[in-house]
Structure formats: structure tokens, C-alpha cells
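Consider the subject:
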Amino acid sequence: MTHVSTGEAVAFWILGSLAVIGALGMVLARNAVHSALWLVVTMLNLGFLYVINQAPFLGFVQIIVYTGAIMMLFLFVLMLVGRDASDSLIETLRGQRVAAILLGAGFAALVATGLARALEGTPTAGLEAANQNGNVQGLASLLFTKYVFAFEVTSALLITAAVGAMILAHIERAKGDRADQVTRMKERFLPGNYPGPKPGPGVYANTMSVAAPARLPDGNGTENSISPILPVRELTASEVAPKGTEK
């Protein structure tokens, strides 16, 4: 049995505990973005565990590829779909939540038991020969010689999945629905459209009533400052006339 140093044991318990906390936060978080960020915490700790166990290539792949690229893709999809979209809490099948929890726990126990029985008393073989020139060099040699076909098929599968996601998310628009900046500018300044911010009640006004139109710099009242739900109050002659011109 390989001797485990005190530093490795301490790092395992610290990083392992943080990874478990991140996994629990991912499952228990109600917000999808928060759940994804908790998963980032778990993946970072797994990457550090790989590096501590003398597997720097797997550790950096875990951090750069999974934590960096794939999790950013997850967050992009969440933002694209809408993070405020919540699933319906109405169960279409009675007891499906309890059944899902029991089946998930049973499946986890089955996988853990199978792995424990398969790895118990099984010594590692072939690691020294594969890592004799270094971990990164050994993995690169295996990937591009013995497992090159599986590696290329996996890369093609990922590219196909990315292209399929782009096609599914693409929305075809007719040419008439596409408006350039010049067209949008002309539509903004059409008669009836107010190009600038609307003046609020009380601006250049002699009253505090929100039902009284605000005055423009030339002294005339503007109905754009009145909310559509409020009736427009009739202005007196002194209120309509510009300041300093009352007779």
C-alpha cells in the first residue's frame, strides 16, 4: 500500500469537504445560476485533488476545460433560456418526487458498492511505465497513439453537439423584419414619437399637482408629462401664458 503523507491527508480532507459542500449547494440551490457556481467550486477542488495526486494534466484539464469552458457554456445557456424560468411545482404523477429521490439514492449506492468491490485490493498497474517520461508526456503519448481514434471521435461529437445547439437556438427572420440603425433612427423621430426623455411633473410648473402638465422652456404646457391614467386638468389663462407675459 502506498504511504500517504500528512500533507496529502490534510489536503484531501480540506478539498474533499469543500467539494462535498459545493455538490450539496449545487443540488439545494433554488437559483440555476447559483447552482452552476456551486458546481464550479466542486470542479475546482477536484482539479486541485488531481494535482496533489501527481496528475497535473488531469488537474489542469479539469480546471481549464470543465470549470472554464464548459461551465461558461452552461451559464450562457442559462442566460439564453432565462434564469427566472421556474419549473412547475405541480406533480403530474403522484409521488414522483419521492420515487425520484429513492431511485437516485439507490443508484448512487449501487455505483458506490460496485466501485468499492472492484477497486478493493486491486493494485495499480501500468502507471509507472506510462509516466516514466512525465505525466503530461505519458498521457499525450497514449492519446495520440493507442486512443487516437476514440479521441478524434469524441472531438467530432462535441463539435456536432455545439453545431446542433446553435441550429436549435437560431431564429430565422425575414428580411423585412431586419432593421438597420438608420431605419431605427428614422422610426424614432417619426411624428408622434418623443425622441428625448419626457419631462416629469413639476418641471417648469407652478403647481405640485401631478395632474397638471409641466411647462416647456417656451412656457407652454406639455401633455407628455401627464400619466395616461390621470385626467388632464384644464389650465387657467395665467398658467398657460409664459411667465412674465400675464396681463
User: Anything to note?
Assistant: The chain is about 55% helix and 0% strand.
